[in-house]
Amino acid sequence: MPDQEKALLEVQHLKKYFQTPRGTLHAVDDINFSIPKGQTIGVVGESGCGKSTLGRVVLHLLDSTDGRIFFKGEDITQVDNRKLRELRKQMQIIFQDPYSSLDPRFTVKAIIEEPLENAGIPRAKRREMLPELMATVGLADRLADSYPHELDGGRRQRIGIARALAFNPDFVVCDEPVSALDVSIQAQVINLLLDLQEQRGLTYMFISHDLSVVKYLSHKIMVMYLGQTVEISESDELFAHPTHPYTQALLSAVPVPSVKKKKERILLKGELTSPINPKPGCRFAPRCLYATERCFQEQPALAEVSPGHSVACFNCVK
Ligand SMILES: Nc1ncnc2c1ncn2[C@@H]1O[C@H](COP(=O)(O)OP(=O)(O)OP(=O)(O)O)[C@@H](O)[C@H]1O
Ligand SMILES: [Mg+2]
């Protein structure tokens, strides 16, 4: 019996395949996880491993190929369009590049009000909500009549966050929300997201290719490789005992904030292969330092190495 009561979101055997001229692309291939209300799951992996597709399928912005998505206990893969419109307000997304997702012809005021207007909220009410939304994301009133190009990346991302918060959602997919920002501004935006989570009990799925970014935000971390989960665990446990060779390689690329502590960088051989018509066996095997014959023939299932910490690797799980 899944713990749907406790989890705000629970995903079971979720798949998203794309048909391409070269075959079936397994972008999301049997993903399972749950997020309790008010918590964050960090989703990490290299470019092309299926993070954004997963986020979009979970939000029902893309149809799933198979699997179930329980939001507040209800399977949202089965709902009608009216219900879906209602759910959309409760589930929002923040994008990586706020600049390309903001219309440059509109002022900050118009951009933040747009989703409210589309939902039929009258002008007077929108004008009432605007200062509050701007204050919530730390945008000064005087910026209401500015245009996106007049603002820095951090402020533009705050506009994206204000739009996502307009309907007071429960769940927000943050798709690389700080990857395009300068390091100094990244911390400000991350702190804002953390404050909002605390104030509003928000539940996040935080997508990043960078483990050091998800570390500070995530209660749980899922490491993806070519559409699949290779390791999933509570965040502290993952950093204390990274087990899958892929997770270890990702972690070895994270800089250590100490001059004394030296760390050997594990270089990954080759590049992420294509998830089109994947061969049997472990998808990471062609790049794995420890791969044996079995790894090329059979696919390892996720298995617990300690409570709540699962790894898909024949050589890691005894
Ligand atoms: N609409 C589509 N049609 C066909 N293939 C797609 C489509 N959208 C995504 N893909 C493919 O699905 C795979 C996963 O892509 P996705 O964008 O989800 O990866 P990602 O982990 O978010 O990468 P990045 O870090 O670059 O954002 C890729 O191989 C991509 O080319
Ligand atoms: Mg992406």
Please explain how this structure is put together.
The chain is an alpha/beta fold and 318 residues long. The chain has a single domain, classed as Rossmann fold (3-Layer(aba) Sandwich), CATH 3.40.50.300. It has 11 helices and 12 strands. The radius of gyration is 21 Å and the shape is globular. Adenosine-5'-triphosphate (ATP) binds next to strand 1, strand 2 and helix 1.
Protein topology:
Blueprint: E1 7-20, E2 23-36, E3 40-44, H1 51-58, E4 66-71, E5 74-75, H2 81-90, E6 91-94, H3 98-101, H4 108-118, H5 123-136, H6 153-165, E7 171-175, H7 183-200, E8 203-208, H8 211-215, E9 220-225, E10 228-234, H9 235-240, H10 245-252, H11 293-297, E11 303-306, E12 309-311
Parallel strand pairs: 3-8, 3-9, 6-7, 7-8
Antiparallel strand pairs: 1-2, 1-4, 4-5, 9-10, 10-12, 11-12
Helix pairs in contact: 4-5, 4-6, 6-7
The structure holds adenosine-5'-triphosphate and magnesium ion.
